Amino acid sequence: HSLNSQYMFDSGKYMVIYSQNLGLMSIEVLLHRLFDSTGILVFQYLVAFLLTIGILSGYYITGYLSGNNRKAQFYYLLFMFTCFPMYGYVPYIYGDLSSTIFLLCTVWCLFSYISQPKVYKLLLFAMLAGVTVQLRQNTLVAMIAIFLVLVIRLSHGNKKQTVLLGLALLAGIILCNWGIKSQYDIPKDAESIPPLTYVYMGLNDSDENAPGWYDQSGLNLFIESDFDTEVTNQRTLQLLDERLEEYMHSPSYMFDFIRRKIITQWEVPMYHCIPMTYAHTEERGKLATSIYERTGLGGIIEKYMKIYQLLLYGGILFLLLKRIRNYPKIEWYVLLIAAFGGFLFSVIWEAKTRYVFPYLLMLVPYMAVAMSEFNLKVNTRFIEKKEVVE
Asked: Distance between CA atoms of 306 and 312, rounded to whole angstroms?
């Protein structure tokens, strides 16, 4: 059905319940109108093309973070080209990868404007931020991180420049959201599912599902409340009170629940790219089969990604410890703050490993800088020992 049809915006219909997907669906419907039945395939090709721009953005972000260290940029390219979950998400028809690509472009534009302010960069920064949020509203976590960095920067950097960036960020998000919604005649009585229901799901612990994972309980509450936001919020708050009382009554159980929830999201080396892009047996080639069944090349890839994940977390810890005494400007931390915000968000929100995947791409530039500095430290120690022996 056309997005302009009343059917799509009747109470209880998908685009009303999940109105946060309106921006992404608008792009997909536009492609469908232009390319008919191949619209989805065009979207996949578009994401594949945009991926090259996202990698280029990360390359320049790494350069900014490392002081244009070529070795760090080399490591970045190496880690990105061998980031196998990234390839897995290219054909996924959702905004996880595309929104992350636009986010990396937004941060690149931010750094570029800070280094050399130009009006066109400011406008591009606003536009990219707006499109990013429309593709995936969870990216608001990263936008809040950028805004916080700008607020802190007011006491350190160029105030006029920082204020302009803050205003551009807000304007881009607000105007892009208004521009999308103004295209459709959405009835005033058509209400979206309340965010509280996702928090309720995020605190559920059952034998059938992983801790805090999607179980449709929030949607069921909304349906049982006759798609009334106020009634749903009241019922959800009551259930949340009961859930929190249960956790507070047994703190050990609460911490065990949180531990298990974190592990199921942040210690999955392939970031659920296989289940999210599921293909039936008859649709798989030999390579796809080995990846799905984790045999042959698929098994090697998974083992490599386990090492990759260890290098990611260990490298960032090494980098932060190294920066304790000589910390850089606050904007240097922007993607780290975004990832930390995403970590906190993942603890309370409905859980899925694919929600964590974008933070992997945000952290790769720091992983590359860490590897470069670790390599330098090892080489320096080796040279010093060699000189002592001689």
From this structure: 10
From the CB of residue 75, how many other CB atoms can be counted at a distance below 10 Å?
A: 24
- CA–CA dist 58, 76 (Å, integer): 8
**DSSP alpha helix (H) spans, 158-285:** 159-181, 196-202, 217-224, 229-249, 251-266, 273-276
Which tokens go with 171?
């304007």
User: pTM of the prediction?
Assistant: 0.91
Decide: 176 and 169 in contact? Cβ < 8 Å. Answer: no
**Would you say 353 and 265 are in contact if contact means Cβ atoms under 8 Å apart?**
yes
What contacts 95, CB < 8 A, 6 or more positions away? Answer: 21, 24, 135, 136
Phi, psi (deg, nearest 5) at residue 143: -65, -35
Contact (CB, 8 A) for 116 and 69: no
- Tens of pLDDT, residue by residue over 72-130, are 999 999 999 999 999 989 988 888 999 999 999 999 999 999 999 999 999 999 999 99
CA angle 261-264-270, nearest 5°? 155
